[in-house]
Design a protein that fits this description.
The protein has 238 residues and is mainly α. It has a domain at 186-238. Helices cover 59% and strands 2% of the residues. It has eight helices and two strands, in the order H-H-E-E-H-H-H-H-H-H. A two-stranded antiparallel ribbon has the order 1-2. A hairpin with a 2-residue loop joins strand 1 (73-74) and strand 2 (77-78). Helix 3 packs parallel to helix 4 (111-125), helix 6 (168-184) runs parallel beside helix 8 and helix 7 (196-211) runs parallel beside helix 8. The protein starts with a helix and ends with a helix. The relative contact order is 0.05.
Amino acid sequence: MHVTSRQLIAWGMILGALLIVGGALFYFWPVERGVSLPSESERLAARVAKEQAVAALIASKDITRCEEVKGVSSDGINYYAVCRNNILYQTISENPDFSQCDAVDGTLFTKTECEERVLSARISLGKEGVELCDTAPAPSRETCRLSYWQTQALKTGTTAPCGNLSGTDTTYCREKVLLRLLRDNPKTESCTQFDPSDQAACSQVKQAVTSKKITECQKITRPDFRQVCIDIFLLKKI
C-alpha cells in the first residue's frame, strides 16, 4: 500500500494525541482508582512525630539510642546526625573533654567548633588559668585566649584583662565587654569608656532607656548598640 506524506503526518498527529491522552490517563488514574497521596497536614504531622521522637532520644543523653533513627531523614535532615551531635553538644558542657570531639562528624558543627565549645565550658568553670589554652588544639588556641580574657574582664567588670591580648583581639575584647556592661548596667555605665566613635551610639541607648520606649532603639543606626538597647528592654534592665 502506498502511503502518502499527508497520511504519515495524519498518523503522526493521531499517535501524538494518543500518547498525550495515555499520559493523562496514567497521571490521573491513581486518583480515579481511589489511591490518594498524603495531604500536606498529614506530611507535617509525620514530620513532627519524627522530630518529637528525636527530641526524646536527645533528652535521654544516651548516644547509643540514636541508632533508633539511623537512616531516617526528612527534607534533607539526617535525624541520626542531629541526634548524635546534639547529645555530644550537651555532654560537652557537663564533661568538657577534648576527646569527645573525636566523635563529631561535622554535620551540625565542626571538630574545631567542638573544641572551642570544650574550652569555653572549661573557662566558664573558672578552675583553670590561661595556661589551659596552651593545651588546646592549635587552631583553637587564639580563640581560647580571647575567650579567657574576655571572661575575666566580665567577671571583674573592667576592660583591664583585655590588655593581655594583642592587636585586633584587644579591641574586640574591649568592645564586647563594654557592650555587655552597658547592657547589664544601662543607668550607671558611662559612655566615656567607649571610643569617641562609639559614644554617640551609647548615648542613644541611654536616651532610649530614659524614655522607657523600646521603639526608640530602632532609631540607633549601629546594629551592635541597637541590639544592646533591645536586650535591655527584653531583660528588664530598666
